């Protein structure tokens, strides 16, 4: 078996679950999340000669998920079709405590870039630099997104009492 | 200036949120363990199956939609939600296309200029079909002797077992010498595993779990890097020590000296690696002919048939017996092996008297149909081979193949690495992104193409005034899309950057025009803005310039900073009805002055 194949296999195995979790955090739909992750890994495989040589191929697939998630949210027509397809299959659901569900719901209510930064920060424990690489923006920009996103989350979740001091 | 380190310092008042968030994150990840890939078999769906499943049987299940244009598909691959099996099949189909391109356009011929050298080893006596299932036509024909050495990924394998055992292939030792171009070998990375020393080499020992559909059972493998590639020893149903002993006794050839073999073990088969795993389609012996047939216009790469023939020892036929579902049969009056794989299709392999190993593997056909093809192969004369290679050889490196009938090339250009891009439209597909395909060729012969589907059309089917996507390539991205006729200009705009005018192109019979330009930027979120001749804004949409290159902070962002660094792109929101609304362009400096904390706490 080609070395490249094995390298990709190991990469995909490591990335798949966290990638689905990340996609779910942005979409709230497990079926869509699996597809977004799968599509991103598929893209990575198809460009693996280049993606695999990057310093952080994990950041590349996360950006691919972000792009696809953004597209998912933007494209009503595709969403309808996806929902139609999803309706025809057994669905698995993410079973979380209500408070945890609410947290992720609020993450999804954030502006896209804030949601992406927050999800990477909490879910994947990414550093600012890693988030910047995944989002394709500067670290300073990530700090802004993170700050605003977290402040907004604190407000939405009723945890703003302590946070107000940090707000303008 | 705020530095780019990971130290976010303290962000007051958010400790409770952080605790809450991390608990929610942990719970979600735990759910992923439960819900996603409930076992190694599924774990491999994105890895092993992608990598090793070049094809799949046909399915009548609907697989609508093409990949997002941010994907760089090597063909019109399709991946859709649905049952896990469906996804796996779709992925296998994608890999099939990858293999197909490797077999064709992604390889560089040694002499990249002019017509193929039909006097080479492929010229005479090769077998060609006199019968094919309905719809199959030649797609790519490659004279393997002319594949440039730098593109030749080639392996030799020898398999050892006990011929007197009830099933000699149940317990085997395999030694593989995988020859890679220097560039690839330099980037070799072993699988995860235990570091051991084999014959003076640092090597990696890992366990084979045996759950791979192509594996006959668990065992161990050890790999190490050598000057021209990789050496490996794998033992199926063998112990760790047996594999290490075998590895310590590897010889050139490759082989395993008698001292390294268990009692009773002898060589069962030897030959090119692709004879052991023909459906991988990734190994190129230095001579032979490889022809791929497909169903034109099918588009998803799910139905293909490959005929590969190359010089090899007769015993190479049996290499296919290492596959899990394989058996010896007789074809063309001689010993052969058939391998069946649910996802990868059917492979039949035998040796011709002239020392040619022939492998036919097909996806999307019954075994009976494949065997009919096999039985109806006939030696072709030089003229037939010449005609086949002339018509179906992969295009020279850096050049596109002809545009398909009914389609038109709308725009093209060069990229910094010497490759080229082009946007092709299918005018009959409607005035939308659905009609566009982005294609790339690299200077070394690699090629890829991607189609974009999923127009932002509203519920009445009216396409938006502006749809723009980016497709990453070396050194930047091709920004392409469709814009309404009333637009006179389309510019790509981002904070801290000079607007970039995108070229507009006409397509015969269309009112809309096609936007297409190469943008030498990466890692940038920008807004494409269409304006009428009087300057009135017609439409705008966000464009993510996804790049394959490592992303670097923008060095050209506005100089009028407050010391806080890079620019923040304009924020746009698009409603589900396709309406895009953007906030006014604000500078990062102003926002950060007002709103940004000095730092954010991080546990």
* Distance between the first and last residues' Cα of chain B: 23 Å
Read across the widest sheet of chain B, the strand sequence of neighbours is 2-12-13-17-16-15-14
Q: Specify the helix fraction band of chain A.
A: over 70%
* Parts with pLDDT < 50 across at least 5 consecutive residues of chain B: 1-7, 38-123, 452-461, 547-603
Query: Low-confidence stretches of chain A at least 5 residues in length (pLDDT < 50)?
Result: 73-91, 162-168
Structural class designation of chain B? alpha+beta
Indicate the mean pLDDT of chain A. Answer: 75
Strand residues, percent of chain A? under 5%
- Biggest sheet architecture of chain A: none
Number of helices of chain A: 10
Number of strands of chain B: 32
Instruction: Count the DSSP helices of chain B.
Output: 10
The H-and-E topology of chain A, N to C, reads as: HHHHHHHHHH
What is the overall pLDDT average of chain B? 69
| Sheet/helix structural class of chain A | mainly alpha
Q: How much β-strand is present in the residues of chain B?
A: 25-35%
Q: Using DSSP, what is the number of strands of chain A?
A: 0
């Amino acid at each position: 078996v080609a070395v490249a194949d094995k390298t990709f296999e190991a990469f995909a195995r490591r990335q798949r679950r966290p990638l689905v979790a990340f996609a779910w955090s942005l979409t709230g739909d497990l079926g869509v999340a699996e597809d977004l992750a799968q599509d991103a890994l598929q893209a990575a495989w198809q460009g693996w000669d280049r993606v695999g040589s990057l310093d952080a191929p994990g950041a590349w697939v996360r950006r691919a998920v972000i792009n696809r998630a953004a597209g998912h949210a933007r494209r009503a027509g595709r969403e309808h079709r996806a929902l139609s397809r999803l309706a025809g299959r057994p669905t698995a659901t993410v079973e979380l405590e209500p408070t945890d569900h609410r947290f992720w719901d609020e993450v999804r209510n954030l502006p896209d870039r804030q949601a992406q930064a927050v999800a990477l920060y909490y879910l994947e424990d990414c550093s600012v630099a890693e988030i910047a690489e995944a989002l394709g923006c500067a670290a300073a920009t990530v700090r802004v997104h993170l700050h605003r996103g977290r402040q907004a989350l604190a407000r939405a979740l009723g945890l703003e009492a302590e946070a107000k001091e940090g707000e303008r | 200036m705020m530095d780019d380190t990971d130290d976010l310092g303290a962000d007051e008042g958010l400790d409770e949120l952080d605790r809450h968030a991390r608990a929610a994150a942990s719970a979600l990840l735990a759910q992923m363990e439960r819900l996603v890939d409930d076992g190694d078999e599924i774990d491999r769906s994105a890895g092993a199956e992608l990598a090793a499943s070049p094809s799949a049987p046909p399915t009548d299940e609907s697989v609508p939609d093409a990949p997002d244009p941010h994907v760089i598909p090597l063909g019109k691959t399709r991946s859709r939600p649905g049952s896990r099996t469906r996804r796996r099949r779709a992925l296998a189909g994608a890999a099939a296309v990858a293999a197909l391109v490797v077999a064709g356009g992604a390889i560089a011929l040694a002499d990249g200029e002019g017509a193929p050298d039909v006097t080479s080893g492929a010229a005479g006596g090769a077998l060609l079909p006199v019968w094919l299932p309905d719809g199959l036509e030649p797609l790519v024909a490659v004279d393997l002797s002319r594949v440039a050495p730098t593109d030749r990924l080639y392996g030799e394998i020898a398999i050892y077992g006990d011929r007197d055992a009830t099933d000699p292939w149940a317990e085997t030792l395999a030694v593989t010498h995988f020859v890679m171009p220097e560039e690839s070998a330099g980037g070799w990375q072993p699988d995860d595993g235990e570091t051991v020393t084999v014959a003076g080499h640092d090597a990696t020992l890992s366990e084979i779990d045996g759950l791979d559909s192509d594996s006959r059972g668990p065992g161990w493998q050890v790999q190490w890097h050598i000057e021209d590639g990789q050496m490996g020893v794998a033992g199926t149903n063998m112990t760790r020590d047996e594999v290490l002993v075998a590895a310590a006794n590897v010889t050139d050839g490759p082989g395993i000296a008698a001292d390294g073999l268990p009692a009773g073990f002898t060589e069962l088969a030897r030959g090119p690696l692709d004879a052991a795993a023909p459906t991988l389609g990734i190994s190129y012996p230095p001579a032979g002919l490889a022809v791929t047939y497909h169903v034109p216009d099918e588009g998803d790469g799910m139905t293909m048939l490959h005929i590969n023939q190359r010089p090899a020892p007769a015993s190479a036929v049996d290499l296919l017996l290492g596959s899990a579902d394989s058996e010896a049969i007789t074809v063309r009056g001689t010993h052969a092996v058939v391998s069946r794989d649910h996802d990868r299709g059917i492979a039949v392999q035998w040796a011709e008297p002239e020392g040619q190993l022939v492998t036919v593997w097909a996806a999307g056909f019954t075994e009976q149909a494949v065997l009919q093809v096999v039985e109806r192969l006939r030696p072709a004369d030089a003229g037939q081979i010449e005609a086949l290679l002339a018509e179906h050889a992969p295009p020279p490196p850096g050049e596109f193949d002809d545009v398909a009938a009914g389609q038109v090339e709308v725009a093209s250009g060069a990229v910094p690495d010497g490759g080229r891009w082009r946007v092709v439209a299918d005018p009959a597909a409607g005035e939308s992104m659905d009609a566009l395909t982005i294609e790339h060729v690299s200077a070394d012969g690699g090629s890829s193409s991607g189609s974009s589907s999923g127009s932002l059309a509203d519920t009445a089917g009216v396409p938006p005034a502006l749809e723009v996507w980016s497709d990453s390539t070396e050194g930047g991205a091709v920004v392409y899309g469709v814009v309404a006729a009333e637009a006179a200009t389309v510019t790509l705009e981002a904070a801290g950057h000079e607007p970039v005018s995108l070229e507009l192109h006409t397509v015969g019979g269309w009112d809309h025009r096609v936007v297409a330009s190469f943008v030498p930027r990466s890692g940038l979120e920008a807004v494409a803005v269409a304006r009428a001749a009087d300057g009135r804004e017609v439409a705008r949409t966000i464009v993510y310039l996804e790049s394959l290159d490592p992303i670097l902070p923008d060095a050209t962002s506005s100089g009028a900073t407050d010391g806080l660094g890079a620019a923040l792109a304009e924020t746009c929101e698009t409603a589900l009805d396709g309406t895009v609304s953007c906030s006014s362009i604000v500078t990062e400096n102003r926002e950060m002055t007002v709103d940004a904390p000095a730092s954010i706490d991080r546990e």
